[in-house]
Structures are given as C-alpha cells and as structure tokens.
Amino acid sequence: GPLRNGKGSPYEAGYRLPCIVRWPGQVPAGRVNDAVFATIDFMPTFANLCGFEVPKDRHIDGIDQTDLLLGKSEVGREFFYFNNAGVRKGKWKYLKPDAHFYGYAVDNARKKVNELYDLEADLGEQNNLANKHPEIVEELKRLMDVILKWK
Length: 151
Hints:
By secondary structure, the protein is of the alpha+beta class. It is built from four helices and four strands. Strands 1-2-3-4 form a four-stranded antiparallel sheet, with helices on one face.
C-alpha cells in the first residue's frame, strides 16, 4: 500500500487502521470519517455509552469520543502524541530526529532530521516539509514539550 514502514514505526503504517462499528439505530450506517480515534479512547467512550464514569483516581490518556462515534461530530482528537517520536495535530505530523522505532520497523538508513508531513496531501509521508514550514515544526515541538511536562 501507500503507507511508509509498518508496525513499530511512528509512520502511518504503524498506527493507521480502520475501525468498523455497527450499532443499528445509534451509529449511522455507511458513514466514513477520517478523524483520529485511538485505541486508548475506547475505554472512556464505552464507559460513557454504558452510563459509567471514568475513574478519577488515576490519569486516563483516552478521551470520550461518543459524539464522533454516534455521528454527532466529525471531529476527533485535537492531537495525538506518538510516544518518544512525535505528534500529530490536524493534518500535520511532526517526527523528531531521534524518533523511536522498534522491532522490524527499525530503519538505520533513516535520516536523523526533523520530519513534517501534510497527511491530507501526503498520506505515505514521502515529502518532508520541515524546511518549508519551520513555524509549524516549532509549534508542534512546543506541543510535544507541553505534553511531556504534563505526563
């Protein structure tokens, strides 16, 4: 397929997969949405759908995506953090020079540079735009810093 690398990498082939939901009368049939919905979002989403509260005695990384799932919203996560690798916000994905790869995805030939991709125009992450958009790189680096300090 068009996606770069695979499991164990912070590229889309390592994370992107379809989510198929069937719930007649609740989830609109035939609906397609490209919003980011992470596996960590299932617990708070299902808790809400079942009428339960998310535990308050610990931090839960997932967010409640009930409105997205039920077709009441087209928007998913505002951002997604790739542990020890980068961050995605909207159509932009930033990977730091020393982004972590593991297992079969280790790529010793990968250049150790800032990477920035427009996932709407380049889902295969072939065209590094970091030099063309240094302001977006800096914005996403700051977002990563905030996330790391918060964690």
